[in-house]
Task: inverse folding
């Protein structure tokens, strides 16, 4: 647990963990913004213990150059890096997965597929690259049947793989989502059945070849209209995830409290599904105490205690979280960008002390 007043560095530390797991920031896409003001560069180092053993990771940014070190050497591929450390993130703004547009739900699902199957990242990137190339042809008026044919073939192949990856993970998540939602909602009126369904061309249950053929036909049928309108009208970039609660659209009818509960259920379901695969991603939760009432908070903490995943939670007031598992909770106080470990006394009081043996706190910035 990371706690302290606002603007002390809690989210920065969480961001560093997320950076190692995804090589991205959850706050700003520009790496230059990740560096402390006045510094020439930045680095994050960690030791990860998991299903691949004990591994040493280092991410470094110097100027515009980024580099990775895995166990002292360059990783042979990004997939090898992503196999080592994985994480699931919850932030207050993730309520947009429920209440926002299709792009937010697609982004969540693609992230869930990536967490489950890191090599999916290459497929998704290649699809977006091909999509941009075709879209450029359509926009500048150079689109002709012969010019579009190779891009349609590539989009049919890559798009089918994207669709199948999403379908497989959404299928894995359905029952865990229902289980986690009921556990958090408790006896409240919204502890009902949750539905998850892809809104797509369909046919994913028939396998890759069938989906590829279906998508190729749809692209061919839409080609004249795409040329006329100058945009790509068919493909998984236009799909949506339909999330229902008690038979109604959660986007339209869920309250803010219900939407928060649903988002947490989605995130926890990723952990449950990962456990079934023999994996244990970390859960990173930023500013949880602003999102749940105390009843749901207590049930959420109880669920976390039973999952046996490493959980990083930030809060301004640890008391709001309620009782945490004895012997399994590490409390860190952040103050002025420095991290202080705490010892928890039997009465529940805590005393801060530096994480290092020296008298100074550990400064996580380079």
Result:
């Amino acid at each position: 647990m990371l706690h302290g007043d606002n603007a002390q560095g809690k989210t920065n530390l969480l961001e560093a963990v997320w950076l190692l797991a995804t090589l991205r920031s959850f706050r700003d896409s520009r790496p230059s913004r990740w560096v402390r003001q006045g510094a020439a560069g930045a680095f994050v180092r960690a030791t990860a213990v998991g299903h691949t053993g004990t591994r040493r990771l280092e991410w470094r940014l110097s100027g515009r150059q980024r580099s990775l070190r895995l166990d002292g050497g360059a990783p042979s591929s990004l997939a090898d890096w992503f196999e080592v450390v994985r994480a699931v993130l919850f932030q207050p703004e993730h309520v947009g997965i429920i209440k926002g547009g299709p792009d937010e739900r697609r982004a969540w699902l693609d992230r869930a597929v990536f967490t489950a199957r890191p090599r999916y990242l290459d497929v998704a990137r290649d699809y977006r690259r091909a999509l941009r190339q075709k879209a450029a042809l359509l926009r500048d008026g150079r689109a002709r049947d012969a010019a579009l044919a190779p891009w349609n073939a590539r989009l049919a192949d890559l798009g089918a793989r994207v669709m199948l990856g999403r379908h497989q993970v959404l299928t894995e998540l359905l029952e865990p989502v229902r289980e986690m939602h009921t556990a958090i909602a408790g006896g409240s009126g919204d502890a009902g059945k949750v539905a998850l369904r892809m809104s797509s061309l369909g046919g994913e249950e028939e396998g890759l070849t069938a989906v590829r053929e279906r998508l190729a036909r749809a692209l061919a049928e839409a080609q004249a209209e795409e040329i006329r309108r100058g945009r790509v009208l068919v493909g998984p970039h236009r799909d949506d995830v339909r999330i229902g609660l008690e038979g109604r659209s959660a986007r339209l009818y869920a309250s803010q409290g219900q939407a928060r509960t649903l988002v947490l259920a989605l995130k926890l379901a990723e952990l449950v599904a990962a456990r079934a695969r023999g994996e244990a991603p970390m859960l990173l939760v930023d500013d949880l105490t602003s999102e749940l009432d105390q009843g749901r908070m207590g049930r959420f903490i109880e669920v976390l205690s039973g999952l046996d995943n490493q959980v990083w939670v930030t809060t301004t007031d640890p008391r709001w979280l309620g009782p945490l598992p004895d012997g399994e909770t590490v409390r860190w106080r952040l103050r002025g960008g420095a991290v202080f470990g705490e010892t928890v006394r039997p009465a529940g009081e805590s005393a801060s002390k530096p994480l290092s043996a020296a008298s100074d706190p550990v400064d996580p910035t380079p």
Q: What stands out?
A: DSSP finds ten helices and 13 strands in the chain.
